[in-house]
Structure formats: C-alpha cells, structure tokens
Amino acid sequence: MPTILISAANSDVCLSMVRIMKSHERYREWRIIGLAPDGIWPARAFFDEVIPVPFSKDPDYFSSVLKAVQSTGADIFIPFSEAELTFFVSQREKIQLIPARVVINPADILSVFLDKFETAEFLTKIGVMAPRTRILSDVRTSDMPLLIKPRRSAGSKNMAIIRNEHQLKGFMQEKSENLMNYVAQELIDVPEDEYTCALWRMGGELRICMLWRRLQGGLTGVAKVVKVKAIEDMLQKLADHIPGNLMLNVQLRLRGGIPYVFEINPRFSSTLMMRHKIGFQDFIWTIDYLTAHKAPPIWQIPEGHYIYRVSDEVIVNPEKRA
Questions:
Q1: DSSP letter (8 states) at residue 194
Q2: CATH number assigned to the domain covering 3-104
C-alpha cells in the first residue's frame, strides 16, 4: 500500500490535504501519516498515524524525518511549514538523502519567495508591479502609509499598518534590535480588491486559479471565482520567468486596474480545500503527476461562484484517536 508523509500535520492546509485524500477514489486507501511535534492535536483525528518529530530548528529534526521516511517506507514526503522549507533551502543536499519523492519547489524559487524583500526585488526586475518595499531600517517617513511585516514567515502575525510618524517611531523602537528582519511595504489601501491566486505547473502544464477574497482572522473567509485579464496576464508573465515545476500562492491587490503583488508563498496555501471543491485540484494533480505522470484536466472555470470557509469540530478520545 502506498504511503505519504505530510509534515506540519496540525496546520489547516495539511488537514485539508488528508481530508482530500481520504475522500478521493484513487487515494483513500493510501496510508497517510502526519509528522508533527508531539502533543494532543487535531491531526490525530484525521491521519492514520502521527509520528512526533521536533521543530526544524532542533538539531535532531532531519534525522527524525529521515527515520520516519525509512521506517514507514514512504513513497512521497511533503515538507510543509515555512521553517522546514527554509531548512531545506539552507541545506539543499539533505533532500537527496530522503528515499522518497519530495514535494517541494526548487531551492532557487524557495530562496526568493521565502523572503519578502527578495520577492519584491524579483518582481520589479521582471516587470511585475509590487508595493514599494524596503528593509525596515531603511524606511522613510515619505513612504507612509506603510504595512510592516516580518521579512520571513507567512500569515498575519506581527504586522502593523503605519500611517504617521508617531506610529513609525514606536514600532521602530520596539523592534530596534531586529530591524533587518522586517520589511515596510507601501500600503495598497484597497482591501475590498484583494485576490489570492494559485499558480501550478508540472510537466509543462500550467494551471491558474484566481479568487477574490475577504479575510477573516488572517485566513480567506469568503472567496469568489473570478477571471481578470490584468491578473491573468501578470500570472502568466510570472510563470514565464520561473523554469520547471512550481506550486505558488500569489497574493495581490488591484489598484487602478493594476495588480500589485504583495506576497508569494512557495507552497500549497490555505485555500487548498476551497480550490479543490471548485475543481481546481492542484494537490491531487500533484500526486497524479508524481505517481503516474498524469497530466491535469483542463479546468473549467466556474466564474462567479462563491466559496465560504466554515468551522467544524472533532473529538479526540484519550487514546488520541477520533
């Protein structure tokens, strides 16, 4: 029986991965094993097994992952968290030691898009609009209003909107020993025109999904399937400047009809299940390609459809099983 290992198993995206596989006719019988730091977490209600591994900053991280891959005979391994991706960028040779197909973007892609300053520099170089972006130590008062965020890491934590000198001074004093680890972006102040886009390509087959979105608690709470030519042209240009296979989540705002890309996540994103339910099944397409070199179908865009994120509850018994 084929086996897949998925790290950061308690994250919402990885829980979506296992739910997708368990409901899919080709993959529901696979052994699906999660990797995560030990604890009573929801992954135990979904995965066939959860193997404890330390965080990627721990010196035993890689040996624990390697042991898990070897002991389970895993066919596919998906390192998911940004910290793990950063680990594999800094130690690229480690990937070659894993006796399984590793689902990960090429290191050159990761090294750019894991760094928001490098992302902005790359986009400007290829002619894609991005908010003016500076390292926090280089910011000017004339740059305001600003969105300040960690230079690395995904999500909406440790972010601040700065609109005046008092706010800027306070933030810089608070982060005075850490200024190089933050970026200040020009605030594209049109929150009603924000989009999240999946850009996926394997075996030369490119697929694009554009979603208008509204955030709830840092995640996409409601999305609408759209087809905007300016965004489509920008995504095509981005894909044309990146060789090989890719799995990207491109976040942008549309101002004056021009898309401004403010972040690119080089991994599957939190709208994975939303996309899956409208037929943009990039996770399944990835497994299909790795196991059978099967090309994805032509995606029929259900333009105008809305997708809502709703909560659910699971109970894990004292034996840590659902």
A1: E
A2: 3.40.50.20
- pLDDT of res. 322: 47
Domain over 190-308 is classified CATH 3.40.50.300: no
CA distance 25 to 291: 15
Answer yes or no: are the C-beta atoms of 281 and 151 closer than 8 Å.
no
Half-sphere exposure of 90 (CA within 13 A, CB side): 10
Q: Which two tokens stand for residue 203?
A: 């075996």
Domain spans of the chain?
Answer: 3-104, 132-186, 190-308
* Span 46-58, pLDDT tens digits: 999 999 999 999 9
Cα(248)–Cα(10) distance, rounded to whole angstroms? Answer: 21
The fourth-level CATH superfamily of domain 132-186 is ATP-grasp fold, A domain (3.30.1490.20)
The DSSP secondary structure of 91-131, one letter per residue, reads TGGGGGG-SSEE----HHHHHHHTSHHHHHHHHHHHT----
Nearest alpha-carbon partner for 106 in 181, 18, 17, 201: 201
Q: What is the dihedral of CA 109, 301, 283, 320, to 10 degrees?
A: 130
Please tell me whether the overall predicted TM-score, pTM, comes out greater than 0.85 for this model: yes
- Strands across the sheet with 182-186, in order? 133-135, 182-186, 146-150, 160-162
Which uninterrupted H or E stretch holds 172? helix 165-174
